[in-house]
Amino acid sequence: MKALWFPALFLAVFPALALNPGLHLSQYGHSSWRLRDGAFAGIPHSITQTADGYLWLATDAGPVRFDGVRFVTWAQLGRPPLRAANTYSVFGDGDGGLWIGNGIGIERWWNGRLTAYPKPGGRILAIAKDRTGNLWAVRSRPTDSEGGLCRISGATPKCFNVPGQPSYSVGSALAIDGQNNVWVGSLTGVCRWISGAATCFVLPGLEHVTTGIEGMTVLPDGRLLVSFAGSEQRTGVKELRNGVWHDFSAGHMDWSRIQPTAWLVDRNQALWIGTNSKGIYRVEDGQVDHFDTSDGLSSDSIEGFYQDREGNLWVTASGGIDQFHDLPVTTFSKKEGLMADSANSVLTLSDGSVWVGNRGGIDIIRGNAVSGIRSENGFPGTRVTSMFQDRSGRVWIGVDDGLDLYDQGRFSALLPPGKEPLGVIIGITQDNQGAVWALTAPGALRVPHLFKVLESKKVAEIKLPPIPRAQMVIASSPKYGIWLSSVGSITPLQNGELRTDAAVSTLGTSRASFVDADGAIWWATSQGAVHVKNGRPETLDSQNGLSCDNINSIVRDDRGSLWLQSPCGLDSIAAAELARWEENPGVHISVRNFGILDGALPGGQVPFSPKAVKSTDGRLWFVNERVLQVVDPAHLHLNETRPPVQIETVIADRKANGPQQNLRLPALTRDIEIDYTALSLSVPQKVQFRYRLEGRDREWRDPGKQRQAFYNDLPPGPYTFRVIAANNDGVWNNEGAAWSFSVAPAYYQKAWFRCLLAGIAILLCWMLYRFRVRQIAAGISARFDERLEERTRIARELHDTLLQTIQGSKLIVDDALDNANDSALTRQALQRLSIWLYQATEEGRAALTSLRRSATRQNDLAEALQRAGEDCSLKRPLTFRLTVDGSSRDMHPIVRDDIYRIGYEAIRNACWHSGGTQVEVDLKYARDLILRVRDNGKGIHPDILSNGKQGHFGLRGMQERADRAGGKLSIRATNLHSTNPGTEVELVVPGNLGYQRTKTEERSLLAKVRRLLWR
To answer: 3-state DSSP call for residue 785?
Structure first.
């Protein structure tokens, strides 16, 4: 694109920012993005800015979007494909649309839609917009019979032929002047299109050409400038004024040897000219400045220019794109005319000029022009150290190892003749008596020298004591005369003697000094800025807000602000903040820092003076041992354009989405990345951001310059992401951008599921409550059953022991009563009754004892059964036999007791009720314990076996004991067909219930379990 139109909308909405015309091109901030570095693909032809703040490049590989940091291609944005990939022109209109001219026509992206216009065909080389809103385009080699100039004001573009020119003759040059006339270049000249009519102006010498007009622009005064390439290699620049062609002249340039390809008149009316092979020229007030690849330009072949809403100037070239922007701190170096990059001291004179002590001489700056005093015009040495202008206007200069006086254009040496050089001059000042003092750096013996020069030019040397370091600073003092500062102390000198009694202690090494109007002195030291007032020192350092503690120089501006130079750049402190600090030296104050991105270059610790001065025009000048830097506090460029903020992409679980409002993310979305940007293009590295996710973040987050936000494991629900940004000068756009979205819940995160869980929880609580109630009731019932069981057991005990004995006693008494006349029988009955009553007593005592404990011994089951049988055989004439099969096993005492009681009851029944003569007991220790009691008596009646005997509980007690032991009890007749069938009682108790495991068995069982688990 050879000519560009900056939309008037930007000028109406945004401040008319522009580059400072008083600077050299090399003094602007310059950034470059090169094709060879992989910034983007395809040669850029034109550049534009859309209403949302993005820059767009037309490249051979398609449109590319740029936010100052990231280049994004059309395909990466997910936009619909264009009809042709190669684009030659782009144009951003005031409606937010982007016009794209490619190899076969023109298309427009607006409001999320891509519109392809049926005409014009051919390459669209330039696009512009007139004041009535019509869009104009020029095309090369159209595919139809219509001309190369096209107007787009509706759905179908209309193209026009230029009179006297073939349809393909319109070139790439297009411009619109202040009267809304459309100018278009052709093979032989230019044509002006007004209301459907064309007026052509043929340029002599272009009758037989191959290229014709290559570029044009309209100057503010109405002149038309064109660049051309004609026959016989004729190239050059012409201007059309009042319909007549004139040669273009500016500066001392021969424009016939330069082939311009692109033009731009910036907002300060400076003319920018891009060339085919010689880089960039700028014409300002008749002065021509040049910038090419040797200065850092991406390429010397220029395609076009563009000035964005912040005033930055952009250049498209065959090798990439370049940007020029204003810097708060500008630099004078060898490029700008200094004789060397070795600036050691700077002095401002009463006539407004600025003198720079350099290697090889003195550079003198007036305005923005640089001149100098060199050896060829009288400079007497090789380098300048320190400088000073006294009250009479004379300039004192340290030259090499001596001191010279410059007066009326002549240098004169002041050191006494015949003395050896004693060191370089590091400081010069004048006391309140008019004497000039010069301080030298300590030599090999660490002894500095102080010289006093009177009005008669008589030089006197003041002896000074040795100091531990080579750095000293001298300053005038209204009270004492001069001050000397070295390491850790500031000492006044009065009447040629150091007043150590009035010395002031400080921290660090002194670098420079500055005397305030009230006589207070500021000292720049390695530990901060020391302010000495009324003999009291206070230190201003990083604890108070300074960027660095190591201060190199210090100066005040016309507004009372204090400026400090350090390796961190320049710190500026307003007078009000300084006053607040003086009242409370511990307070943290507001400090504005100008760093390397603002043009402040770090430098070495210059030993000479002055290091910083204020010129008569209010500008501040600093040296850093290499270059000279200048700040104009009264005209600091403040970028007041609030940066538009855009949310670009949302990546949820590695899936990219556009930031559509109310986007619903799927359930269980874990990782969310939000990419955002701010369209401040002056110094995008200084753009700052803050963001907050409403619904998650309580406070704003401060990511600094990071342009991404990350969130993990957001619970389901609605959210709103807000981001705000500040431009390079700290101006915030607090409205920012917002994006609303929501995370869908999984089924178990939905309300119905939560209600279900709540219902289940309530049900479980109710069930636990009911279970606990039943458990308590069961406990009460168990205690009742336990008591009932105990009572039942006592009843069984009484039945099996005491009642049986009492019943037997009754039989004996009844028998004695029936034979009352037989005294011998009665006596025998009474003896038996006595025995049985004793037995009843013992049985009662045993029953009471059993209430407290179970069987007293273990493994005595067979023995107990044997005793029961023998006792029975003593009472009845019968034979008793016990058989034990298997080894005795340890048994649970309660189970053993129940088995014994069952066997005891069976033996007693056989003894007292069977009427038999034999009782056999078999006790078998096998897998299960088996107990059998058999007799050869009369048997048991089936009714008694089924229902028990009225008033007797023996059989019931046996069954209850068997159930409690977990065994199976069976009672049956042994021989139903015999006269004496007999009775058999069999009890089977499972071994796992009755036997107690030994330690060996427990270990074996544990080993089996482990083997099963390993399987």
So the answer is: helix
Q: Please give the distance of CA 627 from its chain centroid, rounded to a whole number.
A: 38
> What contacts 267, CB < 8 A, 6 or more positions away?
16, 17, 18, 307, 311
Query: Do residues 344 and 384 lie in contact, with contact meaning Cβ atoms separated by under 8 Å?
Result: yes
- Quote the pTM value: 0.75
Query: What is the predicted pLDDT for the residue at 856?
Result: 42
Q: From CA 96, how far away is CA 113, in angstroms rounded?
A: 12
Segments making up each domain of the chain, as ranges: 8-15+25-326, 339-635, 645-745, 859-1015
Element (H, E) at 48: strand 44-49
What pLDDT shows up at residue 334?
Answer: 92
- C-alpha 540/C-alpha 588 separation (Å) is 10
CA distance 335 to 357: 17
Task: Write down the pLDDT at residue 590.
Answer: 94
The three-point CA angle 164-170-171 to 5° equals 145
The DSSP letter of residue 81 is: P
Q: What is the pLDDT of residue 446?
A: 55
Q: What is the rounded distance in angstroms from the CA atom of residue 611 to the CA atom of residue 590? A: 24
Over the chain (1015 residues), the average pLDDT of each successive run of 10 is 39 57 92 93 94 95 94 92 92 91 91 86 88 88 73 83 60 85 85 83 68 84 84 72 88 82 92 93 91 95 94 95 95 92 93 94 91 89 92 90 88 66 81 85 64 73 64 74 78 75 77 87 90 88 93 94 94 95 93 93 84 94 93 89 93 87 90 94 94 94 92 92 94 94 89 89 91 77 64 64 68 74 77 75 63 48 82 76 86 81 84 83 90 87 74 76 85 66 88 74 67 62
Would you call 460 helix, strand, or coil by DSSP?
strand
Q: Assess whether the region 8-15+25-326 and the region 339-635 belong to the same CATH fold.
A: yes
pLDDT in the model for residue 11: 39
Q: What secondary structure letter does DSSP report for 359? A: B
Q: Where are the alpha helices (DSSP H) in 506-640?
A: 575-583
Would you tell me how many other CB atoms lie within 10 Å of the CB of residue 218?
Answer: 20
CATH topology of domain 339-635: Methylamine Dehydrogenase; Chain H (2.130.10)
What pLDDT, on a 0 to 100 scale, did the predictor assign at position 812?
Answer: 72
Residue 1013's pLDDT is what? 59
Closest CA to 513 of 491, 489, 530, 537: 530
The one-character DSSP state at 891 is B
Topology, domain 859-1015: Heat Shock Protein 90 (3.30.565)
Answer yes or no: are the C-beta atoms of 583 and 544 closer than 8 Å. Answer: no
How far is residue 253 from each of residues 256, 283, 962, measured CA to CA in Å? 9, 10, 130
- Tell me the CA end-to-end span of the chain in Å, nearest whole number: 81
Structural tokens at position 451 = 């010289």
Closest CA to 398 of 418, 410, 414, 409: 414
Domain 645-745 adopts which CATH fold?
Immunoglobulin-like (2.60.40)
Name which of 556, 615, 611, 622 is nearest 351 in CA terms.
615
**Are the C-beta atoms of 320 and 43 separated by less than 8 Å?**
no
Alpha helices, DSSP H, located in 737-821? 751-797, 803-818
From the CB of residue 1005, how many other CB atoms can be counted at a distance below 10 Å?
11
Q: 8-15+25-326 adopts what CATH topology?
A: Methylamine Dehydrogenase; Chain H (2.130.10)
Q: How far apart are CA 357 and CA 871, in angstroms?
A: 139
Helix (H, G, I), strand (E, B) or coil at 532: strand
User: Backbone phi, then psi, for 180, in 5-degree steps?
Assistant: 70, 20
Contacts of 897 (CB under 8 A, 6+ apart): 854, 855
Cα–Cα distance between 795 and 60 in angstroms, integer?
Answer: 113
Choose among 993, 970, 797: nearest CA to 894: 993
Per DSSP, 377 falls in state: G
Structure tokens belonging to residue 712:
């993990």
